[in-house]
Amino acid sequence: MEFFRFIVAQIINCSPEEWEGFAKQIRVQEFKKNVFLAEANRVPDEVFFIEKGLIRVLINDSKGTEQTFHFATEGQFIADYASYLRMQPAHYSLQALEDTRVVVIPRAAIDWGYAHMKQGEKLGRLVAEQYFSYHDDRIKQTFSLTPKERYHKIEEVFPGILNRIPQHMIASYLGISSVHLSRIKNQK
Amino acid sequence: MEFFRFIVAQIINCSPEEWEGFAKQIRVQEFKKNVFLAEANRVPDEVFFIEKGLIRVLINDSKGTEQTFHFATEGQFIADYASYLRMQPAHYSLQALEDTRVVVIPRAAIDWGYAHMKQGEKLGRLVAEQYFSYHDDRIKQTFSLTPKERYHKIEEVFPGILNRIPQHMIASYLGISSVHLSRIKNQK
DNA sequence: TAGCTTTCTAAACATTTGTTATCGTTTTCA
DNA sequence: TGAAAACGATAACAAATGTTTAGAAAGCTA
Predict the structure, then answer these.
(1) What CATH superfamily classification does A2-133 receive?
(2) Is the pLDDT of residue A188 over 70?
């Protein structure tokens, strides 16, 4: 939990009393490799903070194929946040790709933070802004770069990812087939 | 300005005194059709709220071609928000596609709101969350739908848009060529 | 109104990307 | 440890999408 405390302290001022009240409502949980932290079609009621490990966010397309939507690693928050906000059934599932330790932050804790922590709203704002900016970059890249160019930039966004996960997940993250990714890699 | 006041009041509680202090720092501005409200490569220092009209957000890809990234209409906030947040040169330009009236909200006003309005941070959070959710839907659709399916859903996101703007802008918003969009339309 | 520009469609052809199948290698796990 | 599964590369072919060009209709402007 110290890592999480450290990150929060980097974003906002949070008194020991505030932290104590908040920390009572959250918990640490471990997930083995390949286990799902959250599944599509359920209303998400918590946000995760990754202390260790690697999570992928996946969605089933209209043909029923699993598409990798996103990766998240140490120090990041992760959830089907849009569905969380709207209190609607999730479209995404979250899966641990390695043994992973997360802080589980239930909705009640988040709402408590907004109501009782001086900079709670600010924390929420900054996290949303950061997450938004990531998404914005993502869309921007799909507009302005070819799959090949995107592949060569992926390490900038997720350092070390190429050695941590299988290629077909990279391919679907890039929006292409794994065969095509294989081709791209061998084009020099 | 009343429309803007009305929308803000729908999102947060804002006392007359707070509004007065805030309103002093913002202004209304009109832009003729085809005029640019903001240009790429400049650090954005304001956010716009659209009271009337239609704005497109565009980006130049690596070949120098204009790509339509986004549309925004009455009642929405618009900016190259990621660049605004990072105080970095914008990647997007904003262009009025019709005669448009906006409320110009400078960075100073926004920061003033965070510092002096009780629910200022909350407003910022909710706007960021909303904008994030829109982006999330957008990426989700590009993953799970074909261009044809996306075309048929565009009116859900931007009601009436198909009759307001030329087809090549729709095409680049969908990520396809205008010729291909023409094909799709005539497939029944 | 006349002329110029933009817009949309269409056809032909080129390029990109997907699909399927195969094969050798690596990883997993019972 | 050994069998099964997953993985990555490759080839052949198919489908989707882009590019170029042309022409007719619509819109804009002097």
Answers:
(1) Jelly Rolls (2.60.120.10)
(2) no
Walk across the sheet containing A100-106 and list its strands: A27-31, A100-106, A46-52, A77-78
Residue B112 neighbours by CB distance under 10 Å: 16
- A143 vs B contacts (CB less than 8 Å): 59, 61, 67, 69, 175
CB of B40 within 8 A of CB of B90?
Answer: yes
**Fold of the domain spanning B2-118:** Jelly Rolls (2.60.120)
Chain C footprint bases within 7 A of protein beta carbons:
6-12, 16-21, 29
Please name the nucleotide lying closest to B182, CA to C1'.
C9
Q: Mean per-residue pLDDT for B150-171?
A: 93
Q: What are the residues whose beta carbons fall under 8 Å from the beta carbon of B87, sequence distance 6 or more?
A: B43
Phi/psi zone of residue B137: left (φ > 0), alpha (ψ -120 to 50 degrees), beta?
alpha
Q: B62-107, pLDDT tens digit by residue?
A: 677 889 999 999 999 999 999 999 999 999 999 999 999 999 999 9
Spatial contact of B55 and B72, defined as CB atoms under 8 Å apart: yes
Contacts of A177 (CB under 8 A, 6+ apart): A171
Decide if B158 contacts B138 (C-beta within 8 A). no
The percentage of chain B sitting over the pLDDT mark of 90, rounded to a whole number, equals 89
Chain A residue with minimum CA distance to B84: A133
Name the strands in the sheet holding B46-52, side by side, starting at the edge strand that comes first in the sequence: B27-31, B100-106, B46-52, B77-78
CA–C1' span, B167 to C10, in Å? 16
Domain ranges of chain A: 2-133, 145-188
Whether the beta carbon of B180 falls within 7 A of nucleic chain D: the reply is yes
